[in-house]
Amino acid sequence: MFAQQANPTNNSVLPKTTYYKAKVVKILDQGQKIEGEFTSFYRKVEVQILEGADKGKKVSVEQGGLIEITPQQLLQTGNTIVILKSEVQGKTNYTMLDRYRLDVVLYVLLGFFVLVAFIAGKKGLGAIIGLGISLAVVLQFIVPQILKGYDPVLIT
């Protein structure tokens, strides 16, 4: 049996999980939780799901509490976040994972490519093209073969 295959003797129920992008529409509650010497800020917010099967649905999620965050990290109305929907035995739970940062990452990546092309010229463009080809080989061939259970050393 391959490591990626489920163990049929395990009777535990795995939760069904889905990730969504959501926008904070309202702050419901906020404050501090004190556990001994540990002070943690929290904020409960209402978010509207922006994509997927639950698009348009409004749910409440809590940020902080058990995880130490600073007041500057607290969510504000209008922030875009990533939430996790987990379903176990008919019970649905939504959890805030992180802020949605993909838009910013794309601008940083584009700036990096422009900077490399500006500094290194044709060699820089060649390096970027080589990087793209290498990434395509890894994602289109190597990773799928490893997920099918083939020997990673032999595949690479």
Question: What is the CA-CA span between the terminal residues?
Answer: 21 Å
User: Major sheet: size, sense and barrel closure?
Assistant: 5 strands, antiparallel
> How many helix segments?
2
- Based on Cα principal axes, name the global outline: extended
Counted beta strands: 5
N-to-C SSE string, H for helix and E for strand: EEEEEHH
Low-confidence stretches: none
**Can you list the strand order of the major beta sheet?**
3-2-1-4-5
Query: Rounded to an integer, what's the Rg over CA atoms?
Result: 22 Å
Beta-strand content: 35-45%
Average pLDDT rating: 84
Helix share bin: 25-40%
Brief write-up:
It contains two helices and five strands.
What do these coordinates show?
The mean pLDDT is 84. With 156 residues, the chain is an alpha+beta fold. The protein contains two helices and five strands. A five-stranded antiparallel β-sheet has the order 3-2-1-4-5, with no helix packed on it.
